[in-house]
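From the thread on structure requests for the teaching lab: each student submitted one protein with a one-line request. Submission from student K.M.:

"Model DUF4369 domain-containing protein from Aureibaculum flavum, tokens only."
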Amino acid sequence: MKYLILIITLMCSFISCDKNEPKKNDNSFFILGQFDSISDNTRVFLKFQASNNIIPLDTVYTLNNTFQFSGKITKPEVFGIYIDSIKGSIGLFIQNDSVFIEVDKNWLSNSIIKGSQLNDKYLNFTTKSNEIISKTNYLFPLFQKARTENDVDKLKEINKKIDAIYKENETFTLNFAKENSNSYIAAFALQTVLKSNSVKKDSIAIIYNNFSNSVKKGDFALQILIYLDSVKAISNLSDSN
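Reply posted by the TA:
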């Protein structure tokens, strides 16, 4: 009963606040998920991303169509929420703040996340980036057709268009990282272009150097630093030869 009262109290606090700004707690994170309906005791898993590894962090069970996680983190983290028998996952960036999730049982990735400004910025970036990349969708069937017909000129034309779209996305990404130097999402954005041959390493270094100290402490910024150090080492080795 005490647990139920706690859940109701917490939900009321979310409803009483602005829908896009749940109550904050500077000392810890709190995640509250709500379903239209789901069986009690359904397992919900919280995992976080460390470098390229997904690490289990906590497991809870649904009660009265809700679940909750809480804890403390020393820096922004990438969390993933997985639920038994439901496809997909809920990915979110959070700091020590409160997050409310309206869970989509048909596809977890379509769930609505409220309360995390960091996650809002992440969604703004990924939505715009996906819109740019989606321009290639109509080109792939044309590419397959031209390849089947061995139409070399058509293939060159389509490849040129695809390259231009990827270039547009890289430009958007670099500008986003440059304009949001105080945000953890800037480092996330910048690390997505590390493997691109068309992005100059000096451009990456300039943007990285303008990141705030707090952003540089994050995992994605550390990946960028390791990349820049490795490029410098290779360059020094080449010069010595």
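TA comment: The radius of gyration is 22 Å. Residues 152-179 form the longest helix (28 residues).
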